[in-house]
Amino acid sequence: MDDSIIADGAHYGVEAGKALSVVLSNEPPDPNDCKSVEEMYDEIMAAHWPGAVADLDYSAHANCVAKLILDWINEDTSRAADPPADVYVEGENQPSEIGWCYRMIGGGRFPGDLCPNPNDFSWGWSVNAARRCLELPPVPNPGVEFFAIQFDHVREPKKWRGDPDV
Q: Is residue 73 over pLDDT 80?
């Protein structure tokens, strides 16, 4: 497994709010915060959209988005093989392949103000949480790249990314 792309913690079962704190602090996650695939799946599938983002905490918001991703992929499992993020060819302004977020937005999959930003940490965490539930490998989280630019210490992946059975 490529340690450099697991920086959002979803692949270890760490909830979004705690994962963000871990990334910002550059400390290892508490093993007690690492859920099994089954526990994470159950928590995500139990997520409830109350009608406004303001009514959700950070982790509940990310779980709602992850649930929508799982529902969307379960409708057509071939979607799991598609790129989660837009794919650009160097020098081109338009993506050569549209990623999950914009395909889901275009399909009206996000209710109210739940629509995520595909460059945000919580979107990347939601994608990796859904991928973990589908037993797919993690992909880079665009929010972690932002933090790497803002905070030099964040990109030290060897520090706390080892065996997923933390």
A: yes
How far, CA to CA in Å, does 20 sit from each of 58, 124, 147? 9, 11, 10
Confidence of residue 46 (pLDDT cuts 50, 70, 90): very high
* CA 166/CA 27 separation, integer angstroms: 13
Of the candidates 139, 135, 133, the one whose C-alpha atom is nearest the C-alpha of residue 101 is 139
Cα-based distances in Å from 152 to 25, 73, 145, 156, 158: 11, 35, 11, 9, 15
The C-alpha atoms of residue 113 and residue 132 are separated, in whole angstroms, by 25
> What six digits make up the tokens of 128?
């990796």
Cβ atoms within 10 A of the Cβ of 15, count? 24
| Cβ neighbours around 44 below 10 Å, total | 23
